[in-house]
Amino acid sequence: MSLDPVIRTFNLRKRYKGSKEEALKGITLTIQPGEFFGLLGPNAAGKSTLIAILCGIVGYSSGEAVLLGRKITTNMIGLKSRIGLVPQEIALYPSLTVLENILFFARLHGLSGRKLKTKTEEYIETFFLAEHRNKLISNCSGGIKRRVNLIAGVIHEPALILLDEPTLGVDTQLRTLISDYLTSLNRSGITLLYTTHYMKEAEQLCSRVSIIDHGLIITEGRPAELISSSPGCNDLGQLFLHLTGSELRE
């Protein structure tokens, strides 16, 4: 018996008010349970718009969008507890400490009592934050903020996690820690939708990828199969440049 897709969109379109061009021009996408799915594209390709729609942050102009079996609307009550969002921007409270931020987001997602304490300590240990737990976020390094930003989006153990460049600006050691942790989550059955500009990272982590540009999906498949079917491309980075061009994007 086949399982229903975790995410399904059909001809999904989005035009922002006052814009002459659509941000999304007909995105059709299916993500199955347990996938580690990469959404790749240059700046302003439409990745963040698609994630914002999937989270119910912004509405779409036309088409269909279904998440965990329910039509996506800007009212996501009943679904939000099953979704985790790790945004590209640091979405933490600078006047709270590392520990206070983790506790705040854990309680926001309904954790309490012994489970709250256990999960909080588990994440502090996993991400090597013990010596930083009482630091104000405003006084923390970018790497510490990235770790807490990730924890805030996953501590409630959602069925689906949407990650918008979670390793942006971090060093190799922290990128490895985050990648290993996300891989372990995926192996436990959690579905991940992942955006990144690090093509090597996507090639290593993702079971399937879509490359999006100018609001359209231009290719989709398993990284190894996409590379092998593109003459002259030896890795995902070369394929990405071949399909999207080498011009700089704003």
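(ticket continues) Second input and output from the same batch:
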Amino acid sequence: MFKGSMVAIVTPMNEDGSLDHESLEGLIEFHINNQTDVIISVGTTGESATLNFKEHSEVIKSTLSFVNKRIPVVAGSGANSTSEAIELTERSKDLGADGCLLVTPYYNKPTQNGLYEHYKKIADEVSIPQILYNVPGRTSVDMLPETVHRLSTHPNIVAIKEASGNLDRSKELIEKCADNISIFTGDDKTSVRDILLGFKGNISVTANIVPLEMHNMCKLAMEGKAEEANKINSKIDILHDNLFIESNPIPVKWALHRMGLIKKGIRLPLTWLDEKYEEILEKSLHNSDIILKNK
């Protein structure tokens, strides 16, 4: 259903923090022209935590309209409140999303049984393809493979985005869950490795900047062409590092602004990239053959 290079797309904003739908349309055309396989709308890279419910719905609706069924659209609908996650997932389904991505509940640190019950209730309540999302570095909760396996038999749960970057975890997920669900990497740095192991694609931050390279890299890795995939990866590997030089999506929004694709807008408590990192990130973009426009 979903596979390949799946961009965790940013939410473009004006300098006052208001939504910029015009730039969003341009970004989507940029991705479709560069063979991005799936758009992930209002995930954590899309600043979902600082969008209110109305804005969340507006961005999903605009994304679906601009994509116009040319590629799948998955809506971020996770929350640390189960009832809120159900509401967001229902709304995403009503708007026409092809699936939903649900991050593990953050801050309240549920138990493994709590995680199971959280996801099971959402899947029971809303009939739409759902992707689990484990990113312990951001949420302070780690959904273990045993819990993923318990959830993997639910008909509405179709995949997991695993962003730990841990090789042993990747192998265990494949062993326990690959017969039931697709497994995607959420860690750009280790994406080639994990796809060669058997993952079905990458939900990516780097794909915001180099979508064609990420599409080609994922495709080659899924075909088992390790040498060719790693050759592409070696050219953009510096981006995997430096797009996290400050908290995501600060660096990627700065880079997209320099590329002339979005305006200089981000929401508090995130702030624009610190000047001391600009030269490092600019050099990374130049080394990846990216043409810069805005200063």
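Agent notes: The domain at 4-235 is CATH 3.20.20.70 (TIM Barrel). Strands lie at 4-8, 38-41, 73-76, 99-103, 130-134, 157-162, 182-185, 201-204. Closing as not reproducible unless the customer responds.
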